[in-house]
Records
---
Amino acid sequence: MSVETPPPSLPVPVAATTAFKRSFLLNPWFWATALLAVLFVWLFLETRVTLTNTRQDMARNLARHDVYWQEARAHSKKTTQELSELRQQYATLEGRVAEFQGQAEALHDLYQETTANRNETLLAEVEQNLRFAAQQLQLAGNIEAALLALETADQRLERQDARFLTLRRALAGDLEKLRAAPFVDVAGISLRLEQILSGVDRLPFTLDALSDPDLRKHRISAADEKAQQSERADESNDAGQGWTAYLGAITQKAWEEIKSLVRIERLDQPEPLLLSHERRLALRENLKLRLLNARLALFMRDAWTFKQEITGARALLQQYFSMESGSVRAADQSLRQLADIEVAATAPSVQESLSALQKTRADIGVR
């Protein structure tokens, strides 16, 4: 690098200045420094602009975040208030739940007490029905009343829970045994005895039958009817057999006439012909008493006494009353039919249901 000298025609200071300027402008360091300065300025300005934009962006972001923060703070405050309200409501609900729990426990205790009382009442009713059925079977042998009592007890247990299943099973078994037991129509037999009792005062004695015109007329009409039947038979025989049949018919008719002239009666016991009024009343009362005893034995299911009283009543009828009377024959036939009825049917027991009742009481806790 050569140092240039100023031209000689110029003054020294001016020439020096000019030379300096030329050397300075031609110095690459100058231009490098200028370029660096320009670059630095550009970078400074660019950085300033960038920083300004960044600050603006940050300011906007901060403003936006500040808004978000304010909203979040307000929301947090609202949430805190709501949470406080919820805590208060929760505390209130806890108090109500505790109150409801106390009421529920009280209701549960009341329900248990009511259920226990209801079960006790129910079992008492069932026991009463079972005791009644046992009494009817043991004392009177009344299967119908016992069956009705057991059915009533079973109906009372229909809508109960499984704790009563054992008792219902025992009741079903006893009901089946009662339904399978032989049936004795106590009411029908008693009604027939009552009908005979009501007609005792109208039954004719043997002596009354001998002098009763109605009975005489009945015997005469029966004889006339038999004679008419004989005549009709004779006429039919005459038409078929001639003189032999005609002679036989005449002989038969003559024999009927002879028999109508003579009446033969058998009087094994002559006392009816000598009965006084008091004796007749006593006989009627004795017959009534035997019929009443038979009815009482029927209710007690005493077969031996029942047959003895019926047999005694028949003996009184056949001995002192006229068997030619329709009412006496009807009464004797009814008594004969009643004597053939077996009234001592063996009644089953309901002990199985009573045992199941005691077991159910123990399981439920009812005394």
---
Amino acid sequence: MRLRTQKFKFLSFSGIASLILLSILTSCESKSKDEKTPEMTHVAAEEQIIENNEARKIKNYMEGNELNGSVFVSVANTPIFKGGFGYADFEKRTKNTVKTTFPIASLTKMVVAASFLQMKEKGLLNLNDPIGKYIIGFPNGQNIKLIHLLTNTSGITSPSWSGISVIPKDIVNEIKKSPIIFQAGANWNYQDANYILLSYILEKVSGISLHEYIKKNIFSIAEMKSSGFITRKNTFPYAAKGYFKVQNHFEPIGKLNIHLLYGAGDMYSTVEDINKFDTALMECRFFSKKSLDEMMVPRSKSHYGLGIYIYNDYLFSRGTLGGWNAVHVYFKDKTNVVLLLNARSRKMDILKNAKEIHQLIKK
């Protein structure tokens, strides 16, 4: 995992100019071209919204850029396009659709962050609690707070994962042995270990498993009926196999290391369900407007808030795992773009793809 650090100072709620521009984003809404090969032949989008100018633009963009996966685009909670492109399984020629399930990698973190804001509102914890309160003997545990884990500003690092136990408690003990590279709150360093610790703490505080908590308190509220978890007992619950592009063909990805994904990337979902999560989040169905605002404060020069990146004109989460690539972007004009792809190349920039789709429908 590449190390990324940036110096910064924590920003106050009143001092964030970008919050003014983001007020529309966080106001609770009322409900309402490499050469083609035979393997790259793309099929027409399935289950798409009634053909219109915007839909045609999106369809042409997905096919023209040879994006293999599923897309969902909505404006003010009204779907304007949804469809699948290419194959969920190249060998079996199983097509991608809007119902195809994909690993969503680090998009899992926004769900864990939302769970902590819920528990805070229930009085089960405080985001300024030191992690030493929950993990006895953790180095610098009285100075590292839950908020530092949520914002990737804790200073902790990830251990060498080779040969590590699959039991969460053992994983946490390995993280305890890893060096701390800066004082909590001094810098920003994106590490999955932060969210692994949070998931372990969530289970201790809630008294139930992380997966059970999310099912009861996130999936049920947002009506995410096609989402779930990759586990040791079910290592392939999703439909879309992962591939990596090598020259002009695709190599299938091997098995995932399940224990490394715990709370940091172990969810699978569909484009429809991610859109449902975004809708529930912006309608404040998970928690209050005050907590939503807290989630959306960028805590460093990285623009990272609580499980999500915040810019003046848009919010987003992005995840990469093996051959899978995932992004969802919520723009200030209330356009939501969700892209889940299962064929990845080194040149791919899925956030750029989502932005370009947004620009297309605004022309």
---
Amino acid sequence: MDEMPLGLEAALARNEKARAYFDALPVQEQRQMMARARSCQSRRELRAFVQGLAGPAGRA
């Protein structure tokens, strides 16, 4: 699999629900999520993206 962006790795490490969701995805979808994370222009945007992976409860 492709190498995970460091910012995504760090953000997932801080959000267990998002990490569990990401890990359960098929490899192709994980690659799509990594590509989306690479396109984030700021830490804030990346954090919001990862919180979105956790679902509505992850936004609280």
